[in-house]
Design a protein that fits this description.
This protein is of the alpha/beta class. It has 2 domains: 20-61, no CATH class; 62-282, 2-enoyl-CoA Hydratase, Chain A, domain 1, CATH 3.90.226. The chain is 36% helix and 17% strand. It is built from 10 helices and 9 strands. The protein has helices spanning 21-28, 44-49, 65-72, 96-107, 141-157, 175-194, 209-212, 235-242, 253-258, 271-282, and strands at residues 32-34, 41-43, 79-81, 113-120, 123-130, 161-167, 199-207, 221-224, 264-265. It has a 7-stranded mixed beta sheet with strand order 3-4-5-6-7-8-9, with helices on both faces. Strands 1-2 form a two-stranded antiparallel sheet. Strand 7, helix 7 and strand 8 (221-224) form a beta-alpha-beta unit. Helix 5 (141-157) packs parallel to helix 6 (175-194). It starts with 20 loop residues before the first helix and ends with a helix.
């Protein structure tokens, strides 16, 4: 061995796995979305053209309230009502005002529901559509009031009512007033039922808590989308409470249909037509 020779050794550096810059750039761009189910990177325009359904695996991305109304209501027939209703921090709950302002900026809505009247293939309806982007679609005084009002208008006008729910439940920042909305909305559904006016409930992913425990599960017909999570408490909370493993698919749309908790599962592209066919039978 020469005096200038050195024994060759492998570098003992630690290897750090990182996401490629390209993947980071794509997934963080507003032009692309990554499917949480199959990890496919999807161009936003392609996703929108497919009604926010992954073209590779069929996973359902959420729709906001405006997109839902565009999907379900005939073009140029929707008239929004109760536009100016907005939540107040009457309990002086810490950070509630800031969260409201943040949600208004994020969702372009004053609260977690849009309500109004319109037509579905020519049939007049009153409709309320909840949006999970606004504080998790939580139900406070404004949400409860707007849902109740469309039910009462349907009673007065003798036309069907439709509520599309997407919610984490009652809004804790409004305390007992939020809880009261469960009774108020349920009472309005009961009056509609007694008058023989159809009420179609469309709980979509996710619909939980006080919304599930009130009007969302009181429809004459309950329609949802594939794999939607619908329940009161979350699966993990239930498992910890009862100390048992839950069945596969528990609280998902297919499980609920099998056990008689909902009536119809409809693909998103067929949802308007499905509701229309139900309305034809009930009106």
């Amino acid at each position: 061995m020469g005096i200038f020779s050195a024994k060759k050794t492998k570098n003992q550096y630690a290897k750090v796995t990182t996401k490629s810059k390209l993947t980071l750039d794509i997934t963080e761009s507003s032009q692309w979305k990554k499917c949480s189910k199959c990890n496919e990177i999807i161009y936003n325009e392609d996703l929108k053209n497919n009604l926010n359904v992954c073209p590779k695996c069929g996973n359902y991305f959420p729709l906001n309230a405006f997109e839902r109304i565009e999907l379900l209501i005939d073009e140029r027939t929707f008239e929004e009502q109760d536009i100016t209703l907005n939540s107040k921090d009457f309990l002086n709950f810490p950070m509630y005002k800031e969260k409201l302002e943040e949600s208004i900026d994020k969702s372009r809505m004053l609260d977690a529901v849009i309500s109004g009247s319109g037509k579905i293939n020519g049939i007049g309806v009153n409709i309320a559509v909840m949006d999970f982007n606004f504080m998790g679609g939580s139900m406070g005084s404004v949400v409860g009031e707007k849902v109740t009002r469309i039910l009462e208008r349907s009673l007065e006008e003798k036309i069907p009512a439709i509520v599309v729910s997407s919610s984490g439940g009652a809004r804790m920042q409004e305390g007992i007033v939020s809880l009261m909305q469960m009774a108020k909305t349920s009472g309005a559904v009961k009056r509609l039922n007694e008058a023989g006016i159809p009420f179609i409930s469309v709980p979509v992913n996710p619909t939980t808590g006080g919304v599930t425990a009130s009007f969302a599960m009181l429809g004459d017909v309950i329609i949802t989308e594939p794999d939607a999570l619908i329940g009161f408490a979350g699966p993990r909370v239930i498992e910890q409470t009862i100390n048992q493993k839950l069945p596969k698919g528990f609280q998902r749309a297919e499980f609920l249909l099998e056990h008689g908790m909902i009536d119809i599962i409809s693909e998103r592209k067929d949802l308007k037509e499905t509701i229309f066919r139900v309305l034809e039978k009930l009106v």
